[in-house]
Amino acid sequence: MTVADVSVRVAERGAIKEAVELGPSPSATEAQRARGKLTVRERLNLLFDPGTFREIEQLRRHRASGFGLEDRRPHTDGVVTGWGQVEGRKVFVYAHDFRIFGGSLGEAHAQKIHKVMDLALAAGAPLVSLSDGAGARIQEGVTALAGYGGIFRRNVAASGVIPQISVMLGPCAGGATYSPALTDYVFMVRDISQMYITGPDVVQAVTGEKITHNDLGGAQVHSTVSGASAFLYDTEEECLEEVRHLLTLLPSNNREVPPVLPCEDPVDRPGDTLARLVPADPNLSYDMRSVIEEIVDDGDLFEVHANWATNIICGLARIDGHVVGIVANQPASLAGVLDIHASEKAARFVQTCDAFSIPLVTLVDVPGFLPGSDQEHNGVIRHGAKLLYAYCNATVPRVQVILRKAYGGAYIVMDSRSIGCDLSFAWPTNEIAVMGAEGAANVVFRREIAAADDPDAARAQRVKQYRQELMHPYYAAERGLVDDVIDPSTTRQVLADALDVLRAKHVPLPERKHGNPPF
Q1: SS3 380
Q2: Active site residue 409
Q3: Which residues belong to any copy of the CoA carboxyltransferase N-terminal domain (predicted)?
Q4: 477: how many CB neighbours lie within 10 A of its CB?
Q5: pTM of the predicted model as reported, rounded to 2 decimal places
């Protein structure tokens, strides 16, 4: 082969790759834009640092025949795979191209995804999926279904080893939905993202119910009702920018710690407003987010599931430049009670933080578990046990701060000393007890109150007595269940010191195959 021949081949290669990157046709690109969506390469440009994306298997084509497939063999087979950098750190990706076979998954398509998933796990780097596909490629039959099985198995193998992030940028139906469900975080974009096991047509045929794609499995539904999506955004650009931000808060794998940033927010900054933000009266509401913003670096909280189970707050933040996971009751929603959804939300978050060596800070103001037959019949015992299990199983540094109420089993579940919290602190407004003083008095002194000439006065006296004897702010500290009662204004400094002393914490795990959590 002469030099001229080589030049021809190189030019041919360049032309093929240029055509591949432009997409299958201008009309397909126009159709994608008409759906209000970006193209796959526009998305990759938003996700990665400029000029860092390296594509693999760009020239892959399917080998299927029948139903006209032998005449349609586009390069990439509808999925772009490779790696790049996000803020200078390596991240792997696979991204469906809806313009090619509707982003549907066939044998070659699946093998490309399997390859990049294996590479991500071997390299110890996060994996991001940009999902915009119509499910299994029907023309390829069962081989497409087997391709999904290979993805699910790799999702599970990578779970807790590398961060896995699913970004839903189009439809996702049937068995395909189980891959995002197995990953650590799911992002969705309003109006263009949908996930459901059975679509509206099947729902109507089977049940008679008429429902739209978005009402059945849209971004709003999964971010507020089902809890399947952790994040909701209005545009793809905003969504992918926040994916980049989340990656800066996570380690590359479970053998590393999250990146530490220089902290310009003084650790000893006094939180003089904290005592005013939290009313001393346990029956008054307030927004726990305002407390968190006073405690963390620069008031920056990256909240997870912000629109679902709003009676508990879970999010990532930094204290003294180090990433921490925040779990906090939210008195502004359902008075901050724990219920089925809040327990599930927090349990999943605690488990994720523990998997990736992110210390936990738990802010407690909880009146108990939500009462009612609906909660009991739908398994609040089982779901509440998930949060209990997650905390008990966590080996990362764990620090608890009790702001006000901490009643009954909910106090125990919210990372109390008795279940393994390393350090527990309380504000002088804390009330740690089996239940509130009013309820306790009604139980303990029921007969006496009923027999009194003035039941209301007798009840008020016993409530006061119970509160003075068993609910004063130093009761738990006197018994070693709280390490110190602190000035609220020093909370940030206390947490920074506690996390610093626990930085090298190591807990040997028991010899067992795995535990058996209450799924």
Answers
A1: helix
A2: yes
A3: 6-262
A4: 18
A5: 0.93
